[in-house]
Fold this protein.
Amino acid sequence: MTAVALTIAGSDSSGGAGIQADLKTFAALGVYGASAITALTAQNTQGVSAIHDVPPAFVAAQIDAVFADLDVAAVKIGMLSQATIVETVAQALDRHRAKNIVLDPVMVASSGDRLLAAEAVDAVRRLLVPRARVVTPNLPEAALLLDTQPAHDETEMQAQARALLGRFRANAVLIKGGHGAGAESVDLLVEQGSMTRLATPRIATKNTHGTGCTLSSAVAAGLAKGLDLAAAVRAAKAYVTAAIARADALGVGHGHGPLHHFHAYWREP
């Protein structure tokens, strides 16, 4: 039977991040993707110009419809802009006994635009972090969750990941170093009693729009196919690295362009 993953996230009108990136990632990795849209954004590779939140009751209706018919093996959670939507999603996850939840705490777009209301941050900490199999913050997102400054090195990254484990009862944290500096892009998968370091050469490109969405969706795809967490994270890191490496071949937009989700399948000019 085909593995099914559900993404609960916002829509990106330019197609590079959010629901669109999630579904592309699922498809590229051989997983059937379903979606529940939490917000509509008017955005492109240069920024976000408007956000229209979906009413919480309709978010719940989408999730209920998917679970009523599809055998959902993993859930990726992305942009949830309001506390009421966070609460609605948490209730739906419990109602359907959702498994393999990957939480990408989307707070700020690559362009710097704020995507999460300040009052919703606490709701994410309380209601979603403990329910997730893994939380996947980048450096600014981890700092916002902890009300501190972004980590500057791997020691600080590990300390912040362990703070999320202890303070907010996270089960596992994949803290992403893409916003850092240095020759390597280092992510750390931190669980109780263990840490896995994932490092790849840092790729010189401005076309990284949707990287976080893509990585978390790739992790969810791996979990949906039955991989354990460490294997799913390794496979996701390899997929995203290759998609970034081929991003310049797309030539989409005038700002921070999207990754090449289908780099393994498209024939380039």
Observations:
- The domain at 4-249 is CATH 3.40.1190.20 (UDP-N-acetylmuramoyl-L-alanine:D-glutamate ligase).
- The chain has a mean pLDDT of 93.
- The two ends are 36 Å apart (CA to CA).
